[in-house]
Design goal:
Layout (H helix, E strand, L loop, with lengths): L4 E7 L13 H4 L3 H12 L3 E7 L3 H11 L3 E4 L11 H10 L9 H8 L1 H10 L7 E4 L15 E5 L13 E2 L2 H15 L3 E5 L4 E9 L3 E3 L3 E5 L12 H5 L1 H7 L1 E5 L5 H17 L4 E9 L5 E8 L8 H7 L5 H14 L3 H4 L1
Parallel strand pairs: 1-2, 1-3
Antiparallel strand pairs: 4-7, 5-6, 5-7, 8-9, 8-10, 8-12, 10-11, 12-13
């Protein structure tokens, strides 16, 4: 790949320093992804300018017009503090007719709304858990068809925000309490879906038209209490001490029959296409006891930290970290939005 001018787009609170010398893992953790991507792009020989954005698109427009990047590497996950507004930023880049990495606006919009995504996938006969949405300000009434146990979470937040062991409820009283908790603490509508007991898998996908699935990864606990459900809570995702306590890790899925492996990869591609995803994504699935595969969530632009699920899965098939970044850039440059088609 030729050397490029790359605008690294991040949240203004997550602009990484140029050196991490002397910093602890805890200090690095909030902006580790941003630093890893910046360092990887620099190692590839690109000219990288990092831009922190929070609530002003004017600075993005001005920087693009001044720096004239070949592509914007998008790591922004919110705008105005709203998780689903990231697709507006990508739409802005398209309106400027500027290439970017990662998912297109339509894919972001469809996948961020968990209920809308499930409706679309149901139409395509892809298995998803039965669910109901509970909007803020409305009475919490469970549809009779929706049985317990249920997993209650935000309709739009990602990264396991607001998910805890208490998110799994077994009666209407606890359902009301947890829905109101989501409303009160996260300020979003809530979704309750049937809790799928079973193994949890993550499948990375790369591509726009031609898709490549990465090896199936699995969430594993070594020391989780017997009565605790094996789910990716907020503490499992972000609390290093808790991670060590319960022995959580992700690794290549073991002992999967070849026919099931093929089925999971096929489902991952079907989900990717049904939700109009592009660039790269991670799909979260659960395997119920009868080998029925359920799509839990689709995550466009997943975490790209060195050593995390997506990068580690790619590495096992010979795509090292810097090659992964190069592949993502290439996909961004090749993506054909409407302004390129005309």
């Amino acid at each position: 790949m030729k050397k490029l001018r790359i605008l690294l787009l991040v949240h203004e609170d997550l602009v990484p320093p140029e050196s991490i010398e002397g910093l602890s893992e805890q200090e690095i953790a909030p902006w580790k992804t941003e630093y890893d991507v910046w360092a990887g792009l620099c190692n590839l020989g690109h000219e990288v300018l990092t831009l922190g954005v929070s609530s002003d698109l004017g600075i993005l427009r001005d920087t693009i017009e001044r720096f004239r990047p070949h592509i914007t590497f998008n790591l922004l996950e919110e705008f105005h503090g709203v998780a689903i507004y990231d697709y507006h930023v990508v739409s802005f880049l398209e309106l400027m007719k500027w290439p970017y990495t990662g998912c297109n606006p339509r894919g972001l919009l469809l996948s961020h709304d968990k209920a809308l995504a499930k409706k679309i996938l149901t139409y395509h006969r892809i298995h998803v858990p039965e669910f109901a949405v509970f909007p803020i300000g409305q009475k919490v009434r469970r549809p009779p068809r929706l049985g317990f146990p249920l997993l209650v979470k935000s309709l739009i937040e990602e990264g396991s925000v607001g998910i805890a062991q208490a998110s799994i409820v077994h009666d209407d009283e606890r359902l009301v309490e947890r829905v109101r908790f989501v409303h009160r603490t996260l300020g979003t509508d809530a979704i309750a879906e049937r809790y799928i007991e079973g193994r949890e898998f993550y499948v990375g996908v790369l591509g726009n038209v031609r898709l490549q699935t990465l090896p199936i990864w699995e969430l594993v606990f070594d020391n989780l209490p017997e009565d605790a459900p094996a789910i990716a809570t907020s503490k499992v995702k972000w609390d290093a001490k808790y991670q060590k306590k319960v022995g959580v890790r992700t690794e290549a899925a073991r002992d999967l029959p070849e026919n099931l492996t093929r089925a999971i990869r096929r489902i991952a591609k079907r989900v990717y296409r049904a939700l109009n995803l592009s660039g790269y994504a991670r799909l979260d699935l659960r395997l119920e006891g009868d080998n029925q595969v359920f799509l839990i969530e689709a995550n466009p632009n997943p975490q790209l930290s060195y050593g995390e699920d997506f990068a580690e899965s790619a590495h096992t098939v010979g795509i090292d970290y810097e090659s992964l970044l190069a592949r993502i850039i290439s996909l961004g440059l090749r993506y054909r939005p409407a302004w390129r088609v005309k």
